TrEMBL record:
Domain of life, per lineage: Bacteria
Protein source organism: Allokutzneria oryzae
InterPro entries associated with the record: Na/Glc_symporter_sf, Na/solute_symporter, Na/solute_symporter_CS
Protein name: Sodium:solute symporter family protein
Subcellular location: Membrane
Membrane topology type: Multi-pass membrane protein
Pfam families, sorted: SSF (PF00474)
Chief localisation class: membrane
């Protein structure tokens, strides 16, 4: 049973704030109605007809990730752990986003698959395809539920709306525009939502820094607070990983987060990859995640820093950090308390719109990827084959409704976690880490067999679940996100080992069936993109853009080492 948020978080929203919220809702619904005009087939509805420019798909790519994980989870991490939280961006995102753009998108886009599970079906057959399609569908409704629950907490705490009413209202708005306009409506709304989110968080950061005496004032206050100066250095991040030994903590971050969780999420999560698949050309598809990487590398300034400010400027969070118990305050509340204390009316309306934008972008990404996988990979593949396209368009819209209804119920699962980031990372270790192991082996080892594809996935998932169960029952002692990091590493290693062993005793597919799916068997020309017309110019080169964002990330990492 979820308790209503405390009255001390309640904000005195004025008519101006509600007017701004009304304008925002009108805009997102208007985009849905406009996008409906371009939907005439299932491909239009589920993949935007592969017609969108790179700057649109790039901003949508990063906006789709700006859900509850970012705003509540990362500000909570910022308040609890400080600067080490940047690892989720600079180690846990940027390298994988560049790898996706330069290495994996040529296979996704070039093979013309409609989803990540469909790629596995071509590579391995129905076994791995069905396992991945089912696990992905479950993961998306669970993660959509996280966003809905987080939004409901905010509306209840700040405006006094009940949690059930808040969940239903948010779900209804997202459902309306995604059902009307499909992926195009979701993507164009995500572009709008990106700018609304920045407009909401930037003033909060500036006002917060002013209150604590600028950056140096924040440094001084954090140094004198519980946790001390260690929170101002990104390494070794022992409080973040829950691993007491500094060397093992670094290894856990680099391998568990920087490699397995990060690459597993960004390169195989169809909720993100779908945005790149909707691009108008191979070059635009490659550039999509790399364009998104540039704002991603700077986002800690408006998400992590507000969490750090809350830890020293908000009395309730400061008391929690000092060890106070029984108050009902959680680190997830950090950004809400900060808004309560810092934002006047008008700014409050923009901030509320930004929070709504964040959660709705996350829900829309989850639901729009769920409906594609359900329609193409489950319904069309295993239930009703060879029907007219209008039939699958109708199924796609019904799947959107069904996915949202299930997400409303899964929203309450997230209520058991004081830090939403713990829950999200646990889900990623279950679903994304083993999938990445299967993908990376499948793309670079032609000997991997169809049987190994699905057996390795199941074994890896069970390994991650086992680690979580042992951590929950204190058979192994890990705090923070440590269980997720260790679980992800276990899933990856077990998946690889089982896949190799099974491959050695089973029969692989003929090489001629693997062209375009395995790196060594795919001609370079099939992996290349156009450099003329709309794709011409050094500033449109995926490689140049990728190197640029990696250099920027390295410089920032050295500053905060």
């Amino acid at each position: 049973m979820i308790e209503l948020a405390k009255s001390d978080l309640r904000l005195d929203a004025s008519w101006l704030d509600y007017t701004l919220l009304g304008v925002y809702f009108a805009l997102v619904l208007g985009i849905g109605f406009l996008a409906r005009r371009s939907v005439s087939s299932s491909l239009d509805f589920l993949l935007s007809g592969r017609s969108l420019p790179a700057w649109v798909t790039g901003l949508a790519f990063i906006s789709a990730n700006l859900g509850a994980l970012e705003l509540l989870g990362m500000t909570a991490n910022g308040a609890q752990h400080g600067i080490p939280t940047v690892h989720y961006y600079w180690i846990g995102a940027i390298p994988a986003m560049v790898f996706l753009g330069l290495v994996m998108m040529p296979f996704y886009y070039g093979s013309k698959v409609r989803s990540v599970p469909e790629f596995l079906r071509r590579r391995f057959g129905p076994g791995a395809h069905l396992v991945n399609a089912l696990s992905f569908a479950v993961a998306q409704v669970l993660i959509a539920g996280v966003n809905l629950f987080a939004l409901a907490l905010i509306m209840n705490a700040l405006l006094g709306w009940s949690i059930p009413v808040s969940i239903v209202i948010a779900a209804a708005v997202v459902l309306t525009y995604t059902t009307l306009g499909g992926l195009s409506a979701a993507i164009y709304n995500e572009v709008l939502q990106f700018f609304v989110i920045v407009a909401a968080l930037l003033p909060l950061t500036i006002i917060g820094l002013t209150k604590v005496g600028g950056w140096q004032g924040l440094v001084d206050k954090i140094t004198a607070s519980p946790g001390g100066a260690e929170q101002l250095s990104s390494w070794p991040a022992t409080s973040l990983t829950g691993i007491g030994d500094a060397t093992l903590s670094v290894l856990g971050l680099v391998f568990g987060l920087g490699f397995v969780l990060s690459f597993g999420y960004w390169t195989t999560n169809f909720a993100e990859v779908q945005r790149a698949m909707s691009a108008k050309s191979m070059s635009a598809a490659k550039r999509t995640p790399i364009i998104g990487a540039y704002p991603k590398v700077l986002i800690p300034a408006i998400i992590v820093i507000p969490g750090m400010i809350a830890a020293v400027a908000v009395p309730e969070i400061a008391e929690l950090k000092a060890g106070a118990t029984g108050t009902g305050v959680e680190y997830n509340d950090s950004i809400l308390y900060l808004m309560r204390d810092l934002l006047p009316n008008g700014f409050l309306g923009v901030a509320l719109a930004g929070l709504l934008a964040s959660f709705m972008a996350g829900v829309a990404a989850n639901v729009s990827s769920f409906n594609t996988v359900f329609t193409y990979d489950l319904w069309q593949s295993y239930v009703r084959k060879d029907r007219p396209d209008e039939y699958y368009l109708r199924i796609g819209r019904l799947a959107t409704v069904g996915g949202m209804v299930v997400a409303i119920f899964t929203a309450f699962i997230a209520s058991g976690y004081g830090n939403i980031m713990d829950y999200i990372q646990t889900l990623f270790s279950f679903f994304n880490a083993p999938l990445f192991a299967t993908f990376i082996l499948a793309m670079f080892w032609k000997r991997m067999t169809p049987a190994a594809g699905w057996i390795g996935l199941v074994a890896g998932t069970l390994a991650a679940v086992s680690v979580d169960v042992m951590a929950s029952n204190e058979i192994i002692v890990l705090a923070g996100q440590g269980p997720a990091f260790v679980g992800a590493g276990a899933a990856f290693v077990v998946d690889i080992l089982v896949s190799v062993l099974v491959s050695l005793v089973t029969t692989p597919k003929p090489e001629k069936e693997l062209v375009g799916l395995v790196y060594s068997l795919t001609p370079k020309a099939d992996r290349s993109h156009s450099v003329t017309g709309e794709d011409a110019g050094w500033y449109r080169s995926p490689t140049t853009l990728g190197v640029g964002v990696l250099v920027l990330t390295a410089v920032l990492s050295l500053i905060f080492i």
